[in-house]
Amino acid sequence: MSEPVNNLTKPIHGGDLTAATKEFGLPEDQWIDLSTGINSASYPNTHLNAQIFRTLPKMSDMERLLNGARRFYRVNKDSEIIAGPGTQSILQNLPLLFPSRKIVILTPTYSEHQYTWEQAGNKVVPVNTLSAIPHDVIAVVVNPNNPDGRKHQVEDLLKLSENLELLVVDEAFCDNSPDLSIIPHLAEHKILVLRSLGKFFGLAGLRLGFALGMPVITRQLAARLGPWAVSRPAIEIGTRALLDSSWFSEMQETLNSKSSRLNRILDKEKLSIIGGTDLFTLITTDHAFELYNALANAGILVRRFEDHPKWLRMGLPGVEIEWQKFEFVLNSTLNTINNVRK
Q1: Is the pTM higher than 0.70?
Q2: How many angstroms separate the CA atoms of 252 and 245, rounded?
Q3: Cβ neighbours of residue 208 under 8 Å, at least 6 residues apart?
Q4: Which strands form 303-304's sheet, in the order they lie side by side?
Q5: CA atoms lying within 13 Å on the CB side of residue 70
Q6: Which of 29, 79, 112, 321 could bridge 186 with an S-S bond, Cβ 3.0-4.6 Å?
Q7: Distance CA 162, CA 164 (A)
Q8: 4 in the Ramachandran plot: left (φ > 0), alpha (ψ -120 to 50) or beta?
């Protein structure tokens, strides 16, 4: 097995309010955090009996969770599903099952994919299109993609998988686009899918994710994660969320409406939208640096990208006062920039 490589630069992520506070001076509890793509309207049914915190998860608890996940994700009978303490934990263990491989990742995308495969000693090759992925490799595709929202149709991914050792599909932002999910079509395909309750359900702090696909892989992952990998509170709340079809349907409509509102604001300011999902929008602008800093100085954190300095990714504000503040600061900042240029 390859030894982990420890001299790689760790990826930068959204949601780092500690770093934002150090840079801009605003206390962590006073930020409007639009940098993560996490739903600010979290799943609400989270009250738990104190006893749940004192006892280890039972097999019956986990089976209820997995049955709820099978129903929610439409898992076919030939596929297997396991749960882990967030998909990040699964991401870090998966490469250890495939040492000394060539890993092809469709980029730009979530940086932890490249980092975790390289940490395990594998060679990572980035490509920009599905057609550029060669045969007989392990490939990673995020669908819909983060940060640009690129979407890939099920039939294209199924065809791609036929000539690969393994296709890993990260569907972290697929809850609002269920028709894009490849999960119902996994039977006998060399595909592993990652899902999470962090984004759409707004439960990132719960640390609950799933791996679905070939039993030979999911069982090895489960063995690596060990017993009681998922806490009993996460199992209980996750089960409720996955079975609450009314809340899910209402939230789909809510996020679609909020996403449209965000894009109208950005269009009004003549900012170039280059992609997104119902949980975030990616823009490109020559004034990304000035806009990022102006928003941050006003207590609004958006996501910047060191390797794409003209990009900014913006999540959805929550309550109405956050929308109003975001729109006001955006407008006033761009007016100032435009006046300086005159």
Answers
A1: yes
A2: 11
A3: 83, 84, 85, 86, 196, 197, 198, 230, 234, 235, 237, 238
A4: 272-277, 280-284, 311-315, 303-304
A5: 13
A6: 79
A7: 6
A8: beta
Terminal Cα-to-Cα distance of the chain (whole angstroms): 61
Residue 13's pLDDT is what? 86
Residues 6+ apart with CB under 8 A from 295: 301, 302, 326, 329, 330, 333
Cα-based angle 71, 74, 80 (whole degrees, multiple of 5): 90
Q: Which amino acid is at 219?
A: R
C-beta separation of 209 from 89 below 8 A: yes
Can you list the domains of the chain with their CATH numbers? 17-41+246-341 (3.90.1150.10), 55-244 (3.40.640.10)
Task: Give the per-residue pLDDT at 2.
Answer: 45
The stretches in the chain having pLDDT less than 50 are 1-4
pLDDT at 1: 40
Handedness of CA 18, 22, 23, 29 (dihedral sign): positive
Q: Whose CA is closest to 234, among 54, 92, 62, 75? A: 62
Q: DSSP 3-state assignment of 153?
A: coil
Say which residues have a Cβ less than 8 Å from residue 83's Cβ, sequence separation at least 6.
62, 65, 66, 69, 208, 209, 210, 229, 230, 235, 238
Place of tokens 């089976």: 63
- The two three-digit tokens of residue 319, written as one number: 């309550």
**For 7, how many CA atoms within 13 A lie in the half-sphere containing its CB?**
0
Extended beta strands in 256-302, E state: 272-277, 280-284, 300-301
pLDDT at site 9:
76
